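User: Some background: our group keeps a shared notebook of sequences we're curious about, and every so often someone picks one and asks for a predicted structure to add to the entry. Today it's my turn. The entry only has the sequence so far, pasted here. Could you supply the structure so I can complete it?
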Amino acid sequence: MIKSTFPSFPNKFGKKLEKKSEIFGGFTREVSVRKIGNNVVVVKIYPDLKPLFVDFSKSTFSLLFLLPKISFLSKEERIQREIIGHEKLAEIGIPVPKILEFSTRDGLLVEEYIDGTNLYQLIKKSEKTERESISYETGKITGFLHSKGYSFFDNRPQNYIFKDSKIFRVDLETFEVAPSLFERCLDVISFTESFSGKIRNHVYNSFISGYETYSKYHPNNFLESLARKCLSLLNLNLPSFR
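Assistant: Of course. Here's the predicted structure to add to the notebook entry:
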């Protein structure tokens, strides 16, 4: 059981620099960047959900997407997954921001702010060679993660930050241990399908090449189609403020 590092959420997190309410599968999460003294942090506030909505959502996902173990809808579980994901990624050498404080009871998490560029923006503005290099490295990260028995579930390029020649992984509230074949497929599709046209083709081919450094990817039309539908229903193509 993960214990909170503070009992309640006082107004001690300084001046808000940015604020964004993110829609995720029909509910919201408020994310703000704040300055405390000389430090800049990200503050995430997760909402309470009505039990009826949670139960209905879990049942629907289980039936539609063959995911009986999905349970990230409650604020407590989403924060716990975020913390476990940070711990596991740090253990295997994937850069992540430091979690500074959190409260599962209050639905709050404070983490280090990585002042870089998210990969969606970076890939969109890059030339073909750089675009392919970034996608290849991200594919390696994803394939390596899968080889260790984990998955992201939400692997959008907005959830990666490039800074000082490093790729940081952020927003791990859907982190999964012992993922199914579908969940691994979802990691591939949620990254590559964030783009379209020629960019999408460059990203997909390079991502898969990097991925197969550690894990073999077996394309499955049914699962990939299911993954696209899942992403559409979860609104996972929304832009990120990062």
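Suggested note for the entry: The helical segments are 51-65, 75-92, 119-125, 128-147, 181-192, 197-211, 221-233. Strands lie at 15-24, 27-36, 39-45, 99-103, 108-112, 117-118, 150-151, 160-163, 166-169, 176-177.
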